[in-house]
């Protein structure tokens, strides 16, 4: 690929299809947990396709640093938060504000969802002098 003004394009910097999330989310052999992760270099976002097995759950947790968008792609379940239980079904787009406690439970057929959020900065190792 070449840009007529700047020359060769970096393949990582052009729009492209990354995967078929519907196929990954419903695959019989898909493991529980993150079945796909956005891994492109230079990205500003993180994204994960997460699969929870039937009757499984993600225990209550808080994401203190980033807001998260959650899109249900297969199955059904329940989001529990300070707002009370909310049903999740394919096509649901849910905003999870940073700092809020939440848990997610899968229904009888399991639950697969895509999360998207700003990429967190990498871990920095500092000396004790730097942290004082």
Structure, described:
The chain is mostly beta strands. It has a single domain (2-119), classed as Jelly Rolls (Sandwich), CATH 2.60.120.10. Helix content is 8%, strand content 48%. It is built from 2 helices and 9 strands. The chain has helices spanning 21-26, 128-131; strands spanning 2-3, 7-8, 33-37, 45-52, 57-62, 68-81, 84-88, 93-96, 101-118. The strands form 2 sheets. Strands 3, 4, 5, 6, 7, 8 and 9 form a 7-stranded antiparallel beta sheet that branches. A hairpin with a 7-residue loop joins strand 3 (33-37) and strand 4. The relative contact order is 0.22.
Task: Give me the secondary-structure topology.
Blueprint lengths: L1 E2 L3 E2 L12 H6 L6 E5 L7 E8 L4 E6 L5 E14 L2 E5 L4 E4 L4 E18 L9 H4 L1
Antiparallel strand pairs: 1-2, 3-4, 4-9, 5-9, 6-7, 6-8, 6-9
Largest sheet: 7 strands, antiparallel
Question: Could you name the CATH class?
Answer: Mainly Beta
Report the radius of gyration as a whole number of Å: 18 Å
End-to-end C-alpha gap: 49 Å
Annotated CATH homologous superfamily = Jelly Rolls
Unreliable segments of 5+ consecutive residues = none
Beta-strand proportion: over 45%
Outline, from the CA principal axes?
A: globular
| Average predicted local confidence, pLDDT | 84
Fraction in helix: under 10%
For this structure, the quaternary state is single chain
Number of helices: 2
Annotated CATH architecture: Sandwich
* CATH fold naming: Jelly Rolls
The number of distinct β-strands equals: 9
Order of helices and strands: EEHEEEEEEEH
Number of separate domains: 1
Structural class: mainly beta
